Amino acid sequence: MRNIITIIRKEMNSYFRSPIAYLLLFLFAAATGGVFYLYIKTFMFQSLTQAQYAQMYEQQMPPMNINEMVIRPVLGWTGSICLFLAPMITMRLFAEERKTGTIELLLTSPVTDVQLVLGKFFASLMLFATMLSMTGLYFIVLFRYGNPDFLPLIPGYLGQLLLGGSFLSIGLMFSTMTRNQVVAGSLTFFFLIIFMLVQWSGDSVGGTWSQIAGYVSWTAHLENFSKGVIDLKDTIYYLSVIALGLFVSVRSLESIRWRA
Fold first, then answer.
1. Of 222 and 200, the one with more pLDDT
2. Cα 193 from Cα 141, distance rounded (Å)
3. Which of 4, 5, 45, 65 is in Cβ range 3.0-4.6 Å of 119 for a Cys bridge?
4. From CA 36, how far away is CA 212, in angstroms rounded?
């Protein structure tokens, strides 16, 4: 456990001693802030329209659910934004070590391959969680001026963490397979895009393929979390993807050690 914590500290220092972490935080804040602004603007416009109609026809204004109209779509878009940022977080983790030659020092140090993979994975997950926590500022504004339901936020953020962990484990896996950071990031991005396209193709084709596509696609498993529902099937799916990505990463490191 001590070795894993040491690796986490090393990677976090590496992130924040370079422009990488600050660039990612800025891009994430700008993208999610823009999405939040658009949905808030739409919500306020619809609220004003409904109030005008209710006053005009002397009727009671129908209730508007801010969770469904703002929080849920914002969290949904957050997952899509992470699709672009996750490869940037993971592409350097092992590819840079292999390019600079420091991977030999790591492999000959008193650290197991499992500890090395877990340390780098948890460091990237901590950076992702830091990014995700920034969206809490937007929802604090909603609680200050509105009356949203707090409980659905817990499954929503849990789903985002599981989704981010899945993306990061896949990115970590590809980072162990190449010396080039750009190649590692590109492979991760296109792999994740393919899984999103699988969902779209299943919706258009229907039938058995639609059911298969719905199970393997990461977008389908995020819906219940965004609704405020923690489904065991969806949780197992994301944990399985994380475990598979980490397992392949360890095996990839073992092959590097064997070739060395």
1. 222
2. 33
3. 4
4. 32
Q: What percent of the chain has pLDDT over 70?
A: 86
DSSP 3-state percent helix, strand, coil across the chain (nearest 5): 80, 0, 20
Q: Token pair of 157, please?
A: 């953020």
Structure tokens of 257? 């050690």
Per the structure, the complete domain to which residue 130 belongs is given by: 2-259
Contact 182, 87 (CB under 8 A): no
Q: Is the pLDDT of residue 62 over 80?
A: no
Residue 230 · residue 209 · CB < 8 Å: no
Which helix (H) or strand (E) element contains residue 17? none
Residue 2 confidence class, pLDDT cut points 50, 70, 90: confident
Report which of 35, 47, 44 is spatially closest to residue 73, judged by C-alpha positions.
35
Q: What is the C-alpha to C-alpha distance for residues 199 and 220, in angstroms, rounded to an integer?
A: 7
- Hey, what long-range contacts does 5-14 have (CB within 8 A, 24 or more apart)? 5/119, 6/119, 7/111, 7/115, 7/116, 7/118, 7/119, 7/120, 7/123, 8/119, 8/122, 8/123, 8/126, 10/119, 10/123, 11/93, 11/119, 11/120, 11/123, 11/124, 12/123, 12/126, 12/127
Q: How buried is residue 211: exposed, middle or buried, by Cβ count under 10 Å (0-12/13-18/19+)?
A: exposed
Q: What is the mean pLDDT of the chain?
A: 82
Secondary structure letter of residue 134 according to DSSP: T
Burial 12-37 (b: 16+ CB within 10 A, else e): beebeeeebbeebbeebeebbeebbe
What is the domain count for the chain? 1
3-state secondary structure of 148: coil
Q: 174 is written with which tokens? A: 């590809």
Q: CB under 8 Å to 152, separation ≥6 — which residues?
A: 67, 71, 72, 227, 228
Residue with tokens 């949905």: 39
